[in-house]
Write a structure and sequence with these properties.
Number of helices: 1
Protein name: DUF4352 domain-containing protein
Oligomer: single chain
Strand content: 35-45%
Number of strands: 12
Distance between the termini: 89 Å
Keywords: Membrane, Transmembrane, Transmembrane helix
CATH class of the largest domain: Mainly Beta
Largest sheet: 10 strands, mixed
CATH architecture of the largest domain: Sandwich
Radius of gyration: 25 Å
Structural class: alpha+beta
Number of domains: 2
Length: about 190
């Protein structure tokens, strides 16, 4: 009888210690996730490093012009344009910038993808060469009747370089994660590209 009481006491203690350990681990993981969820606020006028790219936000505005940087808008829409100077910091020409900026404004569905234009010659989604800053325009279409937002919220995404990925053993840029959030004021429609 004494032996079975000792066994039960040991089982209760083990269960209590295991439960306490599980609660502690869950608390630590929760604190770690909360820390990761805090994304820094980025200055709208300063440089932003993302690994592959160096960004310098320029301006955001709304345009009701039929063509925005040579690209025809859909009927019944206006354009929300974000211009940014981009420098490719890699050793190869690339156009790996489609997921670099994600709109966070409620007015824009996060699934809506912008079209991206080189402002210098109105080329749609060109490869950018290493170490040559280029001004790019990210253009989202808004319904004509929608009010222009006062500001554009963007999440800036970075990637890390791996000499070998886990699947194919090839080099590349992987593991996208937020650098921070950027909010830039939006100029109202002035009848053309400022």
């Amino acid at each position: 009888m004494l032996e079975s009481a000792r066994s039960r006491l040991k089982a209760w203690l083990a269960a209590g210690i295991g439960t306490a350990a599980a609660i502690a681990v869950a608390g630590l993981l929760g604190a770690f996730e909360a820390r990761q969820a805090q994304v820094p606020v980025l200055a709208p006028a300063g440089p932003i490093e993302t690994g592959q790219w160096l960004l310098r936000p320029v301006k955001a505005y709304v345009s009701a012009e039929k063509y925005v940087y040579g690209t025809l808008r859909k009927p019944g829409t206006k354009a929300l344009v974000f211009e940014v100077d981009m420098t490719n910091r890699t050793a190869q020409s690339t156009k790996d910038y489609f997921e670099l900026l994600q709109a966070t404004r409620p007015l824009l569905d996060p699934a809506t993808k912008p079209y991206i234009v080189l402002t210098r010659d109105e080329t749609l989604s060109p490869e950018l060469h290493p170490d040559i800053p280029e001004r790019m325009a990210y253009v989202w279409e808004l319904p004509d009747g929608a009010a222009a937002p006062a500001s554009l919220g963007l999440t800036v995404i970075r990637k890390i370089y791996k000499q070998r990925d886990n699947l194919y053993g090839l080099p590349g840029w992987f593991n996208p994660s937020p650098v921070g959030r950027l909010t830039i004021p939006v100029a109202p429609d002035i009848g053309g590209q400022p």
